[in-house]
Every structure is written in structure tokens, then in C-alpha cells.
Design a protein that fits this description.
This protein has 395 residues and is α/β, with parallel strands linked by helices. It has two domains: 1-36 and 261-395, no CATH class; 49-258, Spore Coat Polysaccharide Biosynthesis Protein SpsA, Chain A, CATH 3.90.550.10. Helices cover 51% and strands 14% of the residues. It contains 13 helices and eight strands. The protein has helices at residues 2-33, 62-70, 92-97, 115-122, 144-150, 175-184, 189-203, 231-241, 262-282, 289-292, 294-326, 328-348, 358-381; strands at 49-55, 79-86, 104-109, 130-134, 139-140, 157-167, 213-217, 245-257. The chain has an eight-stranded mixed sheet, sandwiched between helices. Strand 1 (49-55), helix 2 (62-70) and strand 2 form a beta-alpha-beta unit. Helix 1 (2-33) crosses helix 7 (189-203) and helix 9 (262-282) packs parallel to helix 13 (358-381). The radius of gyration is 22 Å and the shape is globular.
């Protein structure tokens, strides 16, 4: 009985330490044993590409987004910009139509069905050899598009993902400030995640692309993709099934404004993790190491191990209560854990617009992340699927 209680208590700790520390260390070791990939070469002629921008009620952002896309360093006669309006009810469609004479196409869906459905609808309309998916609230730096497309000169690359840089909303148009954030901090977790993707690229393939900015070969694009699943995550899995790899491109910088509203981040995490779990189940065959080798190990370590921490937490809490009955040390640990939950709850309920002390903010985000992870698992186990897309309002 004691062994079982100890196992349940330490299970989430072991999973978390392996996923966030052990796995990156092992990746770095394996990457050093691999030959560094050759730098992509400049194509003799840039391929024709389609840039898709799925959106729903983005009248505040879509004009600025289109202006930025039109200014990207890429031949204007070699690209199509396609906005897919997911049955928007504001002025989004009207604004997009105003760009028609500058080469921007509008595809309106009359029934709102979600982001993946919008991207499915874009497939038959897209004319490019490479389809580049992006978002209406982010900013792609001027030379990033060429850097992304250049990766496809390697015939083994099926998906190329940009490098997210998390910035304050006020800095979305400040390229100098944004670049300095990349080199000096890059907003903690996002910078850590991009570092993992760079190592995975060295080892063979990333296991998920950035939903804000990634490209995929036209003949690998699935226009019948299940609408309730996560296409950006699945894209790396689908191309691996077809014998291609997915890579992260450091030079393809994409500025993503941070959301300062904890409740919005809480809901986003529930949605994205639930869709990620459902997508992984849909492509679970890729976890077979006998068929997919190192890719199966990376998929298990990077995704599943992290997600398994959340259902293990309630079991660890129960084990902690049991141990605290017989041990003063574990009783102190239990009291500290309860205090942390109380502080985190205060952080989650902190009035919007009022600055909170750092400890309360950190505890709030920590509690929100863990509770969101557990709720995501609950949603998946109940087979609750939310196909309708609710974009994160970052700006």
C-alpha cells in the first residue's frame, strides 16, 4: 500500500521532470550525434504559394494583417492571399473585399463551422504549390516568408513551421523591440518551446507546427481533415505518415501578441489541449516506435508525457492527504499546497485591469494551467468535441 501511495505521489513529478528537463537533455545529446542539416538554398524560381487567413469577426485586425502580408518580401506575382471568413457577422468581409484589387481573395462560409472547417474549404480554392497558414492577429516579419518557403527546396520537407516570438501587444508593430525580446528573453515558455523544436529539427522532425505560421506542400494538404481536431499539430503527423519530415525555421519569425487576460488564456488552454489529445488519439499509430522510431519517442515525450501530468495530479493529491495523516513533514507539504491553491485562486479571480503582485500572478497562471489541463482531459474522456472555433482575442 505504501509503495502505491508513493508511486501516485511522485508520478506527476516524474512525468514533468522527464518531459520538461530529461527529454530536452536527451534531445541535445542525440542532436549532437546527427550531422547538421545543410542550409536551404535559394530556389531558381520562387514557388507559387497561397497564404490562408481564416478569421471570424476580425474587423479590428484584418486590415492591418493584410497590409503586412502585402508588404512581405515575396514576388507579388507568385502568391495568392486567401481570407476565409467563417460566417463573420461584423465588417470583416467588407474590409477584405476592399483589398480585392490588390490580389486578396475572399472565401465566405455561410455557416460557422470552425477553423479546421475553414481551412478545409480553402483547399480546393488554393492555387499555390505551398499553402501557408497564418492568423489574423499576428505579424510575420518581412523576410520570414522567404525563409519559410526556402525550406521546401529540400524535397524531404513536407511542413515548415515559423518561430513564434511572444511580444506585448503594444510591440506588435515595433520590429526592433520584438527582435530584442527574442534575444533577451522571448517570453519564457514560448522561447523554451521554440528551442525544443530546433533540437527536434536536428534529430529528424518536429512533432507539431505553429498554428500561427506554417507551410505545407499542396499535395500533402488534407481538405477532408476532421473539423474538431487540430490541423497545425496534425500536419506534422500527417506528413510523417507520408514519409516526409516537418522542420522549424529559426529565421521565419512570427510575432504573437500575449494575452493579458488570465480567463482567456484559461479557456484557450482547455480548447487547445483537448483538441490536441483528440488529434493524438486520431493519429495514435505514430506512437509505434517499431514503425516510426525516434519520431514515436519524440511524440510521446513532447506531447503525451506533458499531458499525462494533469490526470496524475488528483491522484497525487489524494496520496499526499494519505501520507500527511502519518507524517508531520507531509502534513506541512499539504498545508503549503493548499496555501498555493488559495493564492492561485486569488490570482485567477484578480480584477481585470488592476496590477497583481508577482507571486499572485505566477500562482494564478500555474493553477489555471493545471486546472485547464485536468478539464481538457475530462472533456476528452466525455467525448465532448467543440468544432466551432473561438479565436483568442490577443490584441
Amino acid at each position: 500500500m505504501n509503495a502505491l501511495v508513493d508511486t501516485l505521489l511522485w508520478l506527476p513529478v516524474g512525468l514533468g521532470v522527464y518531459a520538461y528537463v530529461g527529454y530536452p537533455v536527451l534531445l541535445r545529446v542525440v542532436a549532437k550525434l546527427r550531422r547538421a542539416p545543410m542550409a536551404p538554398v535559394e530556389p531558381a524560381q520562387w514557388p507559387y504559394i497561397t497564404i490562408t487567413v481564416p478569421c471570424y469577426n476580425e474587423e479590428r485586425n484584418v486590415a492591418a494583417t493584410l497590409e503586412r502580408l502585402l508588404q512581405l518580401e515575396y514576388p507579388a506575382d507568385r502568391r495568392q492571399i486567401l481570407v476565409i471568413s467563417d460566417a463573420s457577422t461584423d465588417r470583416t468581409d467588407e474590409i477584405v473585399r476592399g483589398f480585392a484589387d490588390r490580389g486578396v481573395d475572399l472565401l465566405r462560409l455561410e455557416t460557422r463551422r470552425g477553423k479546421s472547417a475553414a481551412e478545409n474549404a480553402a483547399g480546393p480554392v488554393a492555387r499555390g504549390e505551398i499553402i501557408v497558414n497564418t492568423d489574423a492577429t499576428i505579424r510575420i516579419l518581412p523576410n520570414a516568408l522567404k525563409a519559410l518557403v526556402r525550406s521546401f527546396t529540400n524535397p524531404n520537407v513536407g511542413v515548415a513551421s515559423g518561430r513564434d516570438v511572444s511580444v506585448a501587444a503594444a510591440d506588435i508593430d515595433n520590429e526592433v523591440a520584438s527582435r530584442s525580446q527574442r534575444t533577451s528573453g522571448e517570453s519564457g515558455y514560448v522561447g523554451y518551446e521554440m528551442g525544443i523544436r530546433a533540437l527536434e529539427t536536428r534529430v529528424g522532425s518536429i512533432v507539431g507546427a505553429s498554428g500561427c505560421f506554417y507551410g505545407i506542400r499542396r499535395d500533402l494538404y488534407d481538405s477532408g481533415f476532421p473539423e474538431s481536431l487540430s490541423r497545425d499539430f496534425a500536419s506534422a503527423l500527417m506528413v510523417r505518415e507520408r514519409g516526409y519530415c516537418a522542420v522549424s525555421v529559426d529565421e521565419a519569425l512570427c510575432l504573437v501578441p500575449r494575452t493579458s487576460v488570465l480567463q482567456a488564456e484559461f479557456q484557450r488552454k482547455i480548447r487547445t489541449m483537448a483538441r490536441g489529445l483528440q488529434t493524438l488519439w486520431y493519429k495514435r499509430a505514430l506512437l509505434n516506435p517499431f514503425r516510426y522510431g525516434a519520431f514515436a519517442w519524440m511524440l510521446f515525450s513532447h506531447k503525451l508525457c506533458r499531458w499525462l501530468v494533469y490526470p496524475a495530479l488528483p491522484l497525487a493529491a489524494a496520496a499526499l492527504v494519505i501520507k500527511s495523516v502519518h507524517s508531520p513533514f507531509w502534513l506541512v507539504v499539504l498545508i503549503a499546497a493548499v496555501a498555493g491553491v488559495i493564492v492561485g485562486t486569488i490570482g485567477m479571480r484578480w480584477p481585470r485591469g488592476k496590477p497583481a503582485p508577482g507571486v499572485i500572478t505566477l500562482a494564478g497562471f500555474g493553477l489555471a494551467s493545471n486546472v485547464a489541463g485536468m478539464l481538457a482531459w475530462l472533456r476528452v474522456l466525455r467525448n465532448q468535441r467543440a468544432a466551432v472555433w473561438e479565436p483568442t482575442r490577443r490584441t
